[in-house]
Amino acid sequence: MPTIIAVTGHAVATGFIFVLTHDYIIMRRDRGFLHFSELDIGLVIAEGPMSLIRAKIGAPKDRRLAVLRGGKITASMAVEMGIVDSARDGAKETLEAAMKLGIELVERKWDGHVYAENRKMLLGNVWDWKHVGLVDEEKKVASQL
């Protein structure tokens, strides 16, 4: 069945990856951002998470902002970039919107196995990771060793 996440604050590094693993993303507009801090701390993002980033952040300029500039992406920016489905004004409103979406989707009475298979087909390359590590340990910057 669909996964929905309500982002009510910052989602940094692995937190941003966790957000991207969901089918639907609702984000608080008045607080928080999405941010890959790997450049700041001298880490290379491993292939598995990078394949998810490529699948979920569509435009090359948006991927560049997120990964190669370490941009702090607000909810409004994320909606424009197509990363987030909607932005809400506060934590309560964000949670309520996520719950409402969940109820709407459950009412569709989809077959969970069919949904899962379609998700696998849509994101198949993402789940074919050679390893699941979030950071490629062999490619850490020398100053971090």
Can you walk through the features of this model?
By secondary structure, the protein is mainly alpha-helical. Helix content is 48%, strand content 11%. The chain has helices at 14-20, 38-41, 47-56, 60-68, 75-81, 91-107, 112-122, 124-127, and strands at 4-7, 11-12, 24-28, 34-35, 86-88. The chain starts with a strand and ends in an 18-residue tail after the last helix. Residues 141-145 have low confidence and may be disordered.
Summary tags:
145 residues, three-stranded parallel sheet, two-stranded parallel ribbon, disordered C terminus
List the helices and strands and how they pair.
Layout: E1 4-7, E2 11-12, H1 14-20, E3 24-28, E4 34-35, H2 38-41, H3 47-56, H4 60-68, H5 75-81, E5 86-88, H6 91-107, H7 112-122, H8 124-127
Parallel strand pairs: 1-3, 2-4, 3-5
GO biological process, one term: fatty acid beta-oxidation
InterPro entries: ClpP/crotonase-like_dom_sf, Enoyl-CoA_hydra/iso
Transmembrane segments: 6-26
Strand content: 5-15%
* Distance, first to last CA: 42 Å
Individual helix count:
8
Largest sheet: 3 strands, parallel
- How many structural domains? 1
- Give the CATH architecture: Alpha-Beta Complex
Structural class: mainly alpha
* Shape summary: globular
Transmembrane segments: 6-26
InterPro entries: ClpP/crotonase-like_dom_sf, Enoyl-CoA_hydra/iso
Protein name: Enoyl-CoA hydratase/isomerase
Pfam families: ECH_1
